[in-house]
């Protein structure tokens, strides 16, 4: 599946910690938000959609990724501020019809293809998005009831780090091939 990790209208609330990086590069727990998204969604290709002034830097840093080049094929758009969990990722990934997932007015994910994808790409190309921009599209809207953390302010990273660190360690221990334990332990 193709994914696009996007920055939305509310990224300015995270200043100054995201001035010089894509919001998904922020670390909450043991790894970045981008790494968590890639772990849960297992993408075929990744697009980073960000502020224009970061595009050159992101192209240099993430050479295998598309930057600000919106997908033409079906795609799952994922918020760079959401801390997805396994259950929610599974629900979102299993969807085969276009839909938008939100929690309390914040877009978490959008699955789009065909004409819906064209409309979604058009909205993204105009400005940083928020949930109201998608009212004109006829798409299923799913309000997420699951526990999902959304980073709204820099202090949220500190607030969520303990839980996320525990979750990340459990995931790392389950996939032992990525774990290096020192001889001194």
Give a structural overview.
It contains 5 helices and 9 strands. It has 185 residues and is α/β, with parallel strands linked by helices. The strands form 2 sheets. The protein has a 7-stranded mixed beta sheet with strand order 3-2-1-4-7-6-8, with helices on both faces. A two-stranded antiparallel sheet has the order 5-9. The longest helix has 21 residues.
What is this structure's SSE topology?
Elements: E1 2-6, H1 33-41, E2 45-49, H2 55-61, E3 66-67, E4 75-79, E5 82-83, H3 86-93, E6 99-103, E7 106-112, H4 114-126, E8 140-143, E9 149-150, H5 154-174
Parallel strand pairs: 1-2, 1-4, 2-3, 6-8
Antiparallel strand pairs: 4-7, 5-9, 6-7
Summarize the model shown:
By secondary structure, the chain is of the alpha/beta class. The protein has 5 helices and 9 strands; from the N terminus they run βαβαβββαββαββα.
List its traits.
seven-stranded mixed β-sheet; 20% strand; alpha/beta; single chain; 185 residues; two-stranded antiparallel ribbon
Q: What's the N-to-C terminus distance?
A: 39 Å
The helix tally amounts to 5
Instruction: Give the helix/strand class.
Output: alpha/beta
Low-pLDDT stretches are none
- Largest beta sheet: strand ordering: 3-2-1-4-7-6-8
Q: Write the H/E string, N to C.
A: EHEHEEEHEEHEEH
Overall mean pLDDT score?
Answer: 91
**Shape, please?**
globular
* Helix content bin: 25-40%
* Sheet with the most strands, sense and barrel status: 7 strands, mixed
Roughly what fraction of the amino acids lie in strands? 15-25%
Query: Radius of gyration, Cα only, in angstroms?
Result: 16 Å
DSSP strand count: 9
């Amino acid at each position: 599946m193709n994914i696009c990790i996007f920055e939305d209208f509310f990224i300015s609330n995270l200043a100054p910690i995201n001035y010089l990086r894509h919001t998904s590069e922020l670390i909450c727990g043991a790894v970045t938000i981008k790494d968590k998204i890639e772990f849960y969604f297992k993408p075929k290709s990744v697009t980073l959609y960000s502020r224009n002034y970061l595009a050159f830097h992101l192209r240099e840093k993430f050479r295998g990724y598309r930057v600000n080049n919106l997908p033409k094929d079906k795609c799952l758009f994922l918020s760079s501020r959401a801390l997805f969990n396994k259950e929610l990722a599974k629900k979102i990934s299993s969807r085969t019809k276009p839909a938008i997932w939100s929690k309390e007015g914040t877009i978490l994910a959008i699955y789009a293809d065909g004409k819906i994808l064209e409309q979604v790409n058009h909205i993204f190309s105009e400005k940083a998005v928020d949930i109201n921009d998608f009212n004109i599209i006829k798409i299923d809207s799913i309000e997420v009831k699951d526990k999902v953390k959304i980073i709204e302010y820099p202090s949220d990273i500190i607030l969520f780090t303990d839980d996320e660190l525990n979750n990340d360690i459990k995931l790392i221990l389950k996939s032992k091939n990525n774990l290096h334990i020192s001889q001194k332990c």
